[in-house]
Amino acid sequence: TPVLAVVGRPNVGKSTLVNRIIGRREAVVEDRPGVTRDRVSYDATWNGRAFTVVDTGGWDPDARGLAERISAQAEVAVSVADAVLFVVDAGVGITDADAAVVKVLRRSGKPVVLAANKVDDARTEAEAAGLWNLGLGEPQPVSALHGRGSGDLLDAVLRALPATPQESFEELGGPRRVAIVGRPNVGKSSLLNKLVGSDRVVVDDAAGTTVDPIDELVVLREREWRFIDTAGIRRRVREASGQEYYASLRTATAIERAEVAVLVVDGSQPISEQDQRIIATVQEAGRALVIAFNKWDLVDEERRYYLDREIERDLVRVQWAPRINLTARTGWHIDRLVPALDAALGGWETRVGTGALNSFLGRLVAEHPHPVRGGKQPKILFGTQPSTSPPTFVLFTSGKLEASYLRFVERRLREEYGFVGTPVLIQQKPRE
Ligand code: GDP
Question: Which residues are listed for GTP 2 binding in this entry (predicted)?
């Protein structure tokens, strides 16, 4: 889906506005000094169109050089987003920090929607009109707090969002989109360089207007692949503090834009928390996953022993992900990547027919009925798979199935149909 990045100074009401746009649910916390969030992107829909909201607000506003840091925030937003929602406080007007953002946004050529927030009444609305001066087009007066004007704002957002790369590529059967992700120094850029070889084609973003090339098209096994946000891999983010936050922002949005993620892990080092967080991001986004253990030249017998234990302990949740060992530096085993990507994408797009699914579910229920609870027996009545990418199942049930039973169903589905390299979602609709 297309990506909308929300940019603005602390206290202009970004978080409230983001909450209003996504309409609820996953609480976006208010800007607090020193808070870095794991979650940076949220699903939103308006008038039937889905888009992803990236909240760039999780950095430390108390640090020195506010203007400098906010323009860095804007740069990241511009590089990952299809359109930018720039939030200013209509009551306060334009500060130096805002002006720094305007510069970055103008230079980028990205579509910008200017939200004049805190317009709670008609009087402030007149003040908002002064924001035409910024040269970013019509200011959209809005009260994030009360909801005033938020419908018009969302209409403007939809107009600014282009037909997405995703949509247009799917229609055209375009190249597969791959995100290479992982901690710093695990060898992502070495891997990319080996893959790219001499076939490097730099691709501008959809609008074709940004300064930095974002994606690269590479021919592997006679097919084109689109590697997402390679600028983020090739060019390290400069900011000293907040760097981790920007890195995770880039990672999350790259995953969002990709169909399949390659998590590069340094095989010579223990599997880390950060690796696990990236895995969780891939799962939450519902993308296919391949895990590449790099620096295999440094993995000796002893390390191998511990790595196997770590895989058993830390990667159980994603046992289904193809794992490959390689040495990016020399290119050893690098040819194993494409078959792994193909397997994962194949699993991701697997569709099970309704007839086959229900005879499978019938057998499953007969062999392994749900345990009786409170004198009742929850039961699967009927199932369908309404969508792929990732495979998503809806089970119509009598009574509510327990989480452990749902896990059992997932396990059996995987045994039956594979679903290599992909999360599988199972929803239940109890009929009671
Ligand atoms: P990135 O930060 O994930 O992009 O990592 P880089 O590609 O910049 O690599 C970080 C360091 O690891 C560099 O010094 C590389 O030369 C080294 N490196 C990358 N791949 C391998 C590998 O397969 N084996 C070994 N021994 N070193 C590697």
Answer: 182-189, 229-233, 294-297
Ligand 1 close to Cβ of residue 230 (< 6 A): no
Please check whether the domain covering 3-160 is classified as CATH 3.40.50.2000.
no
C-alpha to C-alpha distances, 405 to 362, 409, 426, 427, nearest whole angstrom: 15, 6, 11, 12
Q: Whose CA is nearest to atom 22 of ligand 1?
A: 295
Topology agreement, domain 165-348 and domain 354-430: no
Residues 49 and 219 sit within 8 Å (Cβ to Cβ): no
Q: Which atom of ligand 1 is nearest to the CA of 192?
A: 7
Give the pLDDT of residue 176. Answer: 94
Give the residue ranges of DSSP H helices in 272-395: 273-285, 301-314, 337-348, 354-367
Ligand 1 proximity of 236 Cβ (cutoff 6 Å): no
ipTM comes to 0.97
pLDDT of residue 59: 47
Q: Can you tell me the distance from the alpha carbon of 361 to that of 356, in angstroms, rounded to the nearest whole number?
A: 9
Could you state, in order of their start, the residue ranges of all structural domains in the chain? 3-160, 165-348, 354-430
Residue 182 CA, closest ligand 1 atom number: 3
According to the model, what pLDDT value does residue 247 have? 78
Ligand 1 mean position to 260 CA, how many Å? 22
- What pLDDT sits at residue 213? 53
Q: What is the pLDDT of residue 61?
A: 43
Q: Is 59 annotated as a binding residue?
A: yes
Q: How far is the CA of 190 from the centre of ligand 1 (A)?
A: 6
| Probe residue for ligand 1, chosen from 229, 269, 329, 336 as the CB with the greatest number of ligand atoms within 8 Å | 329
Kindly state if the Cβ of 189 falls inside 6 Å of ligand 1.
yes
Task: Using the mean position of ligand 1's atoms as its centre, give its distance from the Cα of residue 265 in Å.
Answer: 11
CA 6 vs CA 80, 206, 255: distances in Å: 11, 19, 18
Q: Choose the CATH number for 354-430 among 3.40.220.10, 3.30.300.20, 3.50.40.10, 2.60.40.3080.
A: 3.30.300.20
Q: How far is the CA of 322 from the centre of ligand 1 (A)?
A: 21
| 12 CB neighbour count, 10 Å cutoff | 27
To the question of pTM greater than 0.80 for the whole model, the response is: no
Ligand 1 centre distance from Cα of residue 266 (Å):
9
**Closest ligand 1 atom number to CA of residue 264:** 3
Mark the ranges of the chain whose per-residue pLDDT is less than 50: 27, 29-38, 59-62, 165-172, 205-212, 239-240
CATH class of 165-348: alpha beta
